[in-house]
Amino acid sequence: MNLMQRAMSNQHLSICGSKNTPEVIWDVNGNSFVFRGVSYPENAKKFYEPIFNLAKIYVKDNKESKLNMVIDFEYFNTSTARMLYKIFAMFNEAVLNSELNVHIDWKYESDDFDMIDSGKDFDFMFKELNFNLVEKAA
Question: Which listed CATH number (3.10.620, 3.30.750, 2.60.40, 3.40.50) goes with 3-60+69-135?
């Protein structure tokens, strides 16, 4: 059984973070999707493609849900940004064509201007998604 089959049968996906990949927690029943840590995998497509495929299944099966995402990265690289773009674009399209609502808490450190700018950029690009920039507690 592959990662997607296990996640859909359990209604839960959990990937432990490593030195260069984020922790990923997706509770399908709780409509909660979290990325936490750092993300600069050697092969971002290989790491994120199963997550993207699971997101496609979720969108198809949950057209009237509210999905709460938390993006809590300390750092992510350009290839991760491309994968986030792909995931956000798919959710944005789904929101346009269904009753799905996607709320994203984009967490950042007060002095991390790159992370703040990235959150603002994604918010600007994906108007149908509800981005909320959230400063991490000191």
Answer: 3.30.750
pTM score: 0.90
Question: Of 4, 51, 43, whose CA–CA distance to 20 is shortest?
Answer: 43
Q: Per-residue pLDDT tens for 75-113?
A: 999 999 999 999 999 999 999 999 899 999 999 999 999
Backbone region of residue 29 per phi and psi (left: phi > 0; alpha: psi in -120 to 50; beta: other values): alpha
Sequence ranges of the domains in the chain:
3-60+69-135
List, for residues 108-133, the tens digit of each pLDDT value.
Answer: 999 999 999 999 999 999 999 999 99
Largest CA distance in the chain: 43
Phi/psi of residue 39, nearest 5 degrees: -145, 100
